[in-house]
Design goal:
2 copies of one chain form a homodimer.
Chain A (H helix, E strand, L loop, with lengths): L1 H11 L3 E3 L10 H11 L3 H19 L5 E2 L3 H5 L2 H17 L3 E8 L3 H12 L2 E3 L2 E3 L6 E4 L5 H14 L2 E7 L6 H4 L2 E2 L2 E2 H14 L2 E2 L2 E2 L1 E5 L4 H10 L5 E3 L23 E5 L1 H4 L15 H20 L2
Parallel strand pairs in A: 1-2, 1-14, 2-3, 3-6, 6-7, 7-12, 12-13, 13-14
Antiparallel strand pairs in A: 4-5, 8-9, 10-11
Amino acid sequence: MISKLIEQIKIKNAPVVVGLDPQLKFIPDELIQKWYKECGYSLEAVGEAFFEFNKKIIDSTYDIIPAVKPQIAMYEQYGIPGIIAFKKTVDYAHEKGLVVIGDIKRGDIGSTSESYAIGHIGSVEIGEEKIVPFDEDIVTVNPYLGSDGVNPFVDICNKEDKGIFVLVKTSNPSSGEFQDKLSDGKPIYEIVAEKVVEWGNASMDGDYSNVGAVVGATYPEMGKILRKLMPKTYILVPGYGAQGGSGKDLKEYFNEDGLGAIVNSSRGIIAAYKNENYSSFGSSGFADASRAAAEDMIKDIAENCFA
Amino acid sequence: MISKLIEQIKIKNAPVVVGLDPQLKFIPDELIQKWYKECGYSLEAVGEAFFEFNKKIIDSTYDIIPAVKPQIAMYEQYGIPGIIAFKKTVDYAHEKGLVVIGDIKRGDIGSTSESYAIGHIGSVEIGEEKIVPFDEDIVTVNPYLGSDGVNPFVDICNKEDKGIFVLVKTSNPSSGEFQDKLSDGKPIYEIVAEKVVEWGNASMDGDYSNVGAVVGATYPEMGKILRKLMPKTYILVPGYGAQGGSGKDLKEYFNEDGLGAIVNSSRGIIAAYKNENYSSFGSSGFADASRAAAEDMIKDIAENCFA
């Protein structure tokens, strides 16, 4: 799978992913009111509005980006109708040729982790049928439970040509509480990174592994070290834009081949029309504002990382 | 919420929780075939079968147990119809007066963690309506992202009188890969435990906190230390039965007040009819076998921990 993502990154010449993390406050009023009229003040109304919002953003950006990353929490918050919107978003992004990274941060043990892996990037056998439940291409995985939790995902990566990004160093302010603790002089995130390399060796796909890592844009010094520690690992970089990371922080996340990292922006793109830089688009032009913000992000990264 | 769980534990005189973690191989053939006939080989058939299976186990055990713990991965594996079965299980357990612990192991940052918390133990405001999406009472939470990931759950615990169990030391063989790493002579799970106490102080409910901890039955020595380190923290103990833990390993997880721990068994109860000890019940008596296994588990814990 990582080779498919790389192919898309090369075609679009853009190592970026748009985080489809809808929140009610991002949805233009006319759009949400339409669904309230149709479905009442209900979970269904929000689910329908989220999907329409995503669909328009996908329509206006799919030709310039390689991938989208829906954050399932935003959908799960609205119960089953929310999750239906998540699934419709995955399917619609596929229709448009995008790689879909499900930001699910699952992680459990043994058969339980296997269930998550099968549900999101695999297929279930039911009687004589083989059915694909959620059908993402790549998912994020939490490593706290160790190899028992991650290996079932790696097995599915190999079986179904899929990928994962394992949380190594997250972008949030308190990520250091446990991740930065030193053990024998080495922070936990480096110990996790070493395991990512080990898990990744079991699922190579060309020059890179199907087992990637999440390293936040907000910690560029650590990103530099982790880049060297995991040379064949693709790094998913959250934290660009709204969380404070910018193009100049990102150079070290890439390898000399110009590959090895894909940078996510969520609200910076999907809620661009609410930002003063793009406010001229107005709420009815929200999807065009998203395209403009995506173009600016691609340019920022190109100028700062590949000039 | 923890006071409600404790009340139920006292009424039933049973510090146990039944893990409703259905797998296709646990479902009696006549039950699954009925749904294949009704819905074909489909996700819907499995969802319906899971719910009927759970319902019968709840019906045959609800008067002797305080709580159930559905593991959402088992349902998520079957896509949206699976998650519908999860939600129906939560609602049915509530009808029968049980406390519902959603084993979801979610954990993310900021507004994303808040979304998970709202979706599972809180409520969303949609226009003029306040809607409860999943409606569990307590959920499990992964701490790898630090306080940013956990505090949104603690806020919802306070706002809606709910609870969480934070993963501290999990029951699986490889849990030590990161959790046991020593930092300044202290294992990571102890550092997490100290944070659990801190988070827990912000949500006390009587003698115990709404912020509990997960500590596996398979590591009784660590359980003993963690019990002392977190005196006001309820401990959810997985790993009893099929994973190798037994009543004699559990004494140290309880406080001197006879409280402080609740022990989970999943397949040991729900698939009891497949175990030779209960095979006389046959597959048509699977729910009665579950009751017998639950009674034996309660007795085992009473004899070994409170004799």
